[in-house]
Amino acid sequence: MTALEGIAYGFGVALQPGVLIYCLLGVTLGTFIGVLPGIGAMAAISLLLPITYYITPEAALIMLAGVYYGAQYGGAVASILLRLPGTPQSAVTTLDGYPLARQGRAGVALFVSMISSFVGSILGIVVLVLLAGWLSRAATAFGAADYAAMMILGLVAAATIGSGSPVKSFAMVVLGLILGCVGTDVNSGAQRFTFGQTELLDGINLVALAMGLFGVAEVVGNIRDAERQGSPERVSFRQMMPGRDDLRRMPGPILRGTGLGSFFGALPGTGSTLSSFLSYALERRVARRPERFGQGAVEGVAAPEAANNSASITAFVPTLTLGIPGDPIMALMLGALVIHGIQPGPMMLEARPEMFWGLVVSFGIGNMLLLILNLPLIGIWVSMLRIPFRYLYPAILIFVCLGVYSVRGSAFDIGVVAVVGVAGYLMALARFSPALLLLGFVLGPLIETNLRRALLISRGDPLVFLERPIACGFVIATAALIALSIWQARPRLRRNTGESDV
Amino acid sequence: MQRDWADIWGGAVLALTGLAVAFWAGTRLEFGTLRAMGPGFFPSVLGAGLALLGTAIALPAWRRGAAPVPVRPGDLAAVIAAILIFGFGMDRLGVMLACFLAVLVASIPAPRSGWGWRLALSGIVTALTVAVFVFGLKMGLPLWPDP
Q1: Residue A21 within any structural domain of the chain
Q2: Which of A214, A296, A491, A500 is deepest in the core (most CB within 10 A)?
């Protein structure tokens, strides 16, 4: 199927009323979640996972994807109006978005962020179509050793490239891999860490784990903090019209941001947060007057928003063509597909074209819907920011419990949410990343299976990872990342004796 | 100077978890060989790795200072209690009572005094929950306690 045929086919899937309605639901909910500080796309997607049992797999994927990129649009609203990032990806937008709002140009900042998000997404879709076709052809040559090496590279990249201490990040990845071992071993049938609980035979429930780590932990952390935000000013559609000077400043940053975003989004393990930070840094470097940044530069809003939206689209490339989630949110998406019995991989474009092309077209439709939702209706979202968190969070908790319970009618899983919730709250306080734990949890069984298969085929010879050219490339990249993070850690250790490390 | 207790405790808990995992997997599951890995291979190696990483987090933190982490045990307790009341009360108390009680308990740490709004919120959330989940999505849950 060529790209044009595929897109025509995708329209047939995405325009079905039963799919379109879930696309609209997903992007609306995503914007809502993104606008509210304190609840991220991660928590929202885990909340929605149980609902996806009742709908078709393509509608499920399209809805969850809508929540993800919808949250990127909404996240900018709280960042600009309150200097509170609605999502981690929009944290950079506060740097110039909030100063603009203080100068009475909040409407313009919102307009710039919405248009940049839209253009970034649309260009991201083009990159997705081109890359996915090429990669799924290349990936048919992949063997078990190559898959195992690539997934390990993904985990190492996620642990070393993100913010925070790499040792703590590695520990979280390993803990996630261990939790992924719980349940019945696929090869031998042995029970691992089940302690006689029949509920654990299929492993720890992904929905319960994600809700505990993100839903509960974020609620507890925000009970007090989300109340201190104050109220935003009203913004009307008319105030959003940018001046000629603003319009002239937008195209360059949007294109550079999109370029960076689509590149880093498609790499496993890096993701959209990194690309928005990098694109901001790039704009400041290429600017003729870098001192304007931080004082309300339009470029400082346009570039990161274009970057994080294009990255959130191209992040689907490794997930759908290789079956390897690039970031923890993609890990949840992969989990949702596996629940429906669909194993993404190189064959998916051929075997399940309705999933891939339906999703691609839904990206286009969803982004149009978001533009409509966010430009004329911006006032509604701004007034959402006035709802105090104290009225929302008890309802969120009830929804968490019923969501987990609905998966298989098990009160045991609600107990898991409570236990994981305590751990997740403490982890967030001590700056141990729960997102990396989840990435390890989802990738763990895939890595173990491929590792065992690769070594069985090679008769126990570990050199297979160096003899196969594809695997060898991944191994070299992994080693380089580890070496780089050790090299970066050394001077910091010496400087930091006796000083706090934040 | 305040030590970096968050990393000391975090690292220590992770190291002990790793040791326990490696011990449990090493004694109860077959390790196998590199060619034919047993079910214990992956968890044993990972457990040992976690023990090392945990130690590498905790030890340097001992000589390092950090701002104390503001733990809010009250907020955490109220939220967890609400989850448990609802999760394990649904079958016995029925959705009405379990939901009302859970929302009431969850709202205790909210930074606004008075019980009036808390009772009202509990009533509204309970009504919405019953309307959406019991009547709307038709989840088979008892409304009232079983006599």
Answers
A1: yes
A2: A214
**Which residues of chain A have a CB within 8 Å of the CB of B17?**
175, 178
A498 within domain boundaries: no
Give the tens place of pLDDT for each residue, A410-465.
889 899 999 999 999 999 888 888 888 988 888 888 889 889 989 888 888 888 88
> Is A223 at the interface with chain B, CB within 8 A?
yes
How far is the alpha carbon of A219 from chain B, nearest alpha carbon, in Å?
Answer: 8
Q: Which two three-digit tokens encode residue A132? A: 């996915």
Q: What is d(CA A351, CA B36) in angstroms, rounded to the nearest whole number?
A: 32
- Global pTM reads 0.81
Residue A163 CB-density burial (10 A; 0-12 exposed, 13-18 middle, 19+ buried): exposed
Q: Show residues of chain B in contact with A393, CB under 8 Å.
A: 106, 110
Does residue A501 sit within a domain?
no
B63–chain A nearest CA distance, Å:
7
Helix (H, G, I), strand (E, B) or coil at A344: coil
The total number of structural domains in chain A stands at 1
User: Is A497 within a domain?
Assistant: no
Inter-chain touch A425–B76, beta carbons under 8 Å: yes
Write down the pLDDT at residue A302: 92
Instruction: Identify the CA nearest to A433 among candidates A73, A47, A42.
Output: A42
State the alpha helices, DSSP H only, in A83-165.
93-102, 106-138, 144-161
Which long-range contacts (C-beta less than 8 Å, at least 24 apart) are formed by A458-461?
A: A458/A145, A459/B35, A460/B33, A460/B34, A460/B35, A460/B36
Beta partners for residue B65, in sequence order: B3
Per domain, the residue ranges of chain B are 5-62, 73-136
Cα separation, A37 vs A230, in Å, equals: 12
